[in-house]
């Protein structure tokens, strides 16, 4: 992991990504910050207790900063839902440009099923990457949670939330 971080830093110094340099973060809409994960030994990330133990009473989405800028994880809370897969789509807010659309649906997917009316939490097991932009150049992104049912019903959007993020320099 440390080698990856050093190589990433070297690449960033050699070829900075200017994609987000001139983007502005709107002030007239709700934009949250991802929660920082607590990293223990061996880069094992853990959800902060304040998030993990909170009582959620409605559908909710929480984005987390993983161990480097541009790398993220998430939790999604939802009530009764048939078996299927949730995944993310993300868009830069001011231009509505899709972010990492070739990889994001696959790398952010989680199998879910909740036959009860109780709210249940589903979490990523690994991080996913938003490539557009660079470390230190934050911008606003809309994250959408989509659902694809195992029974072949049409895919549908379940939730949307705005976050201030950074890219990982593709």
Describe the structure.
- The two termini are 17 Å apart.
- It is built from three helices and twelve strands.
- By secondary structure, the chain is mostly beta strands.
- 12% of the residues lie in helices and 39% in strands.
- The protein has helices at 2-14, 49-52, 104-107; strands at 35-36, 38-39, 45-46, 60-65, 71-78, 81-92, 97-98, 110-114, 120-123, 128-129, 139-149, 156-165.
The proportion of strand residues reads: 35-45%
Q: How many helical stretches?
A: 3
Order of helices and strands: HEEEHEEEEHEEEEE
- How is the main sheet built? 5 strands, mixed
| Molecular shape | globular
Radius of gyration over C-alpha positions, nearest whole angstrom: 16 Å
Q: State the assembly state of the protein chains.
A: single chain
Poorly predicted runs are 40-44
Q: Approximately how much helix is present in the residues? A: 10-25%
Number of strands: 12
Mean pLDDT across every amino acid position: 87
What class, by secondary structure content?
mainly beta
What's the end-to-end separation, in Å? 17 Å
């Amino acid at each position: 992991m440390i080698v990856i971080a050093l190589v990433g830093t070297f690449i960033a110094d050699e070829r900075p990504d200017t994609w987000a340099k001139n983007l502005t973060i709107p002030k007239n809409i709700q934009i949250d910050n991802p929660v920082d994960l607590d990293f223990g030994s061996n880069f094992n990330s853990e959800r902060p207790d304040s998030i993990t133990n909170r009582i959620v009473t409605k559908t909710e989405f929480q984005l987390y900063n993983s161990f480097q800028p541009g790398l993220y994880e998430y939790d999604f809370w939802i009530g009764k839902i048939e078996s299927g897969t949730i995944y993310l789509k993300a868009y830069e807010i001011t231009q509505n440009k899709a972010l990492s659309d070739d990889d994001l649906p696959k790398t952010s997917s989680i199998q879910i099923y909740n036959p009860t009316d109780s709210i249940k939490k589903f979490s990523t097991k690994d991080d996913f990457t938003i490539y557009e932009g660079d470390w230190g150049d934050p911008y606003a992104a809309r994250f959408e949670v989509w659902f694809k049912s195992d029974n072949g019903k049409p895919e549908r959007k379940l939730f949307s939330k705005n976050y201030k993020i950074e890219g990982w320099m593709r």
